[in-house]
Design goal:
497 residues, alpha/beta, FAD/NAD(P)-binding domain, Polyamine Oxidase, Chain A, domain 2, 2 domains, 6-stranded mixed sheet, 19 strands, binds FAD-MDL72527 adduct
């Protein structure tokens, strides 16, 4: 098939690249990507800390197994380590909770006994799994995940832990606050009070134990880009407005207006901008504006901030087998995941660290995780202030007043003008219909206007793998396939020449 229709893709993240790849391979002759920044990859972004390769954006392949297209591509390009490729690794079904070896430290400078903590962790994980079932039950006892967890945990703690001493019970409730902060990072939400309980179960996990890229996640982007024509992407070309339903134009139905005043006519545009950007700029990005039902879904879906703070040390203060470090504040038994005074105590939102492994490659590097408004505030501080606060935090939790990081590096996704946060989650009152609305092309069904003028891809448009790289990639393929089917239907319905 050779198709002359002109397709413009807005955004050169994995979804935009995937759409272009599929269209070019199907014979589309005029495909162009317009990217606001000077690079490809969007939220797949690899950087360095000293000599170490680190991820500023996406970290893991979630569920690396046959059904995961990112895993399949990474395997094909030879980007993964042998461990990740084994059938055992692919078959391991951990429902998104890798069984990492933890260390717990408390704000009074003690290393906590894992046995004291496990009952709280176990209860929390059971509740989270229960929370994901309301989606299929068609009813929810609470509007948000946070209220559900608190009310159930309170009740269960009163029953199950009635005979244990007050200090241990209190500590376990502090652990639940910590677990809520972990979930804020997983979901990219300010608080679990903002994550809808009814739609929480929409997210689906794939089998496979999450794995990383030894040479960096951007390897997938580089390999995909090398298969595309070199002039396909125009960098530093932000799109200001997509004019659709353009009855004045003679041939093409869409006109794309760029920040530098350049105007590009097209038959179809695939918009892949992040939901955070869409929330902020939808009123100027589309003319005419988005239909109301689509706009309501843009508003109902959540898009929050999750940032990383990498910290490198000369020697480790954690156990050799430790994979994750949790920091438990002993004054937080209210099962809250938000700090009362963001400016003074933003650091309390950082749940802890994942350990970069193997140490032979990375040395002693930790990746701190912090979500929400506290994370957005952290972005405004100078590097010195962040380093100082991290140093004080670690000294306090280890009880060692001399521990000093060698290097610190943080991400700043909220203040990235082309992302405006990290990734999407189902907000309160969300349902599967909202994700359907997100992916619905314009003009909507039933219209007599030229179909498929504006199509939507990007992680926030995937019905069950939103917030992931594989979800984003699949949406790019989905929208390309929509156009491919459209043109194959036209060509088969044409009379033979
Ligand atoms: C994953 C992971 N991961 C950590 C952090 C972040 C993300 N994700 P893009 O934004 O890439 O592309 C859009 C482009 O558009 C971009 O280049 C812009 O510059 C451009 N643009 C914008 N405006 C424009 C304009 N006007 N004109 C022109 N161009 C414009 N995913 O699989 N594993 O470990 C993580 C993580 C800190 C920030 C992640 C992870 C998310 C992915 O990175 C993200 O989904 C995709 O890269 C998005 O690709 P895209 O093409 O859509 O947009 C139970 C349950 C709960 C549910 N959640 C659980 C899942 C957990 C998800 N966890 C992620 C965690 C981490 C750590």
């Amino acid at each position: 098939m050779s198709v002359n229709a002109k397709v413009v893709i807005v955004g050169c993240g994995i979804s935009g690249i995937a759409a272009a790849q599929r269209l070019v391979n199907a014979g589309f002759q005029h495909v162009q990507i317009l990217e606001a920044t000077a690079r490809s990859g969007g939220r797949v972004k690899t950087g360095t800390l000293g000599d170490n390769i680190i991820e500023i954006g996406a970290n893991w392949i979630h569920g690396p197994s046959e059904e995961n297209p990112v895993f399949c591509l990474a395997r094909q390009y030879g980007l993964l380590e042998p461990d990740a490729l084994t059938p055992e690794n692919q078959a391991m079904d951990v429902e998104g909770h890798p069984p990492w070896v933890p260390n717990f430290f408390s704000s009074s400078g003690r290393k906590l006994n894992a046995e004291d903590i496990y009952p709280a962790q176990e209860m929390f994980l059971e509740l989270m799994s229960e929370g994901s079932k309301f989606e299929s039950q068609g009813g929810e006892p609470w509007a948000c995940v946070g209220d559900f967890i608190r009310s159930e945990a309170e009740q269960q703690a009163a029953e199950k832990w009635k005979d244990i001493d007050a200090a241990t019970r209190c500590l376990r409730l502090c652990v639940i606050s910590n677990m809520l902060k972990v979930e804020c990072c997983v979901n990219g939400a300010h608080s679990m009070d903002e994550v809808g309980l009814g739609a929480y179960g929409l997210y689906k996990t794939l089998p496979g134990l999450d794995c990383t890229f030894p040479g960096g996640y951007e390897g997938v982007i580089k390999n995909l880009m090398s298969e595309l024509p070199s002039d396909l992407v125009t960098y530093n070309r932000p799109v200001r407005c997509v004019h659709w339903n353009n009855t004045e134009m003679e041939e093409n139905s869409v006109m794309i207006e760029c920040d530098d005043e350049k105007k590009i006519a097209a038959d179809h545009v695939i918009v892949t901008v992040p939901l955070g950007y869409l929330k902020k700029h939808h009123s100027t990005l589309f003319s005419p504006p988005l239909p109301l039902h689509k706009l309501h879904s843009v508003e109902r879906l959540g898009f929050g901030t999750n940032n990383k703070i990498y910290v490198e040390f000369d020697s480790p203060w954690w156990d050799a087998d430790c994979e994750v470090i949790y920091l438990v504040w002993e004054d937080e038994d209210g099962m809250l995941d938000q700090v009362p005074d963001v400016q003074r105590s933003w650091i309390k939102k950082l749940f802890g660290f994942t350990v970069l492994k193997p140490s032979e490659r990375y040395g002693h590097v930790l990746c701190g995780w912090i979500a929400g408004h506290e994370s957005e505030y952290m972005e405004t501080l100078s590097e010195q202030e962040v380093t100082h606060t991290m140093t004080q935090l670690i000294r306090r939790f280890t009880g060692n007043p001399t521990v000093t990081p060698r290097r610190v590096l943080r991400s700043q996704w909220f203040h990235d003008p082309w992302t405006c946060g990290s990734y999407s989650y189902p907000g309160k009152g969300c349902s599967a219909q909202d994700l359907e609305n997100m992916m619905e092309p314009l003009p909507t069904k039933g219209s007599l206007l030229q179909p498929l003028q504006v199509l939507f891809a990007g992680e926030a448009t995937h019905p069950c793998y939103y917030s992931t790289v594989h979800g984003a990639l699949l949406t790019g393929w989905r929208e390309a396939d929509r156009l491919i089917s459209h043109y194959s239907a036209i060509s088969t319905s044409e009379p033979p020449k």
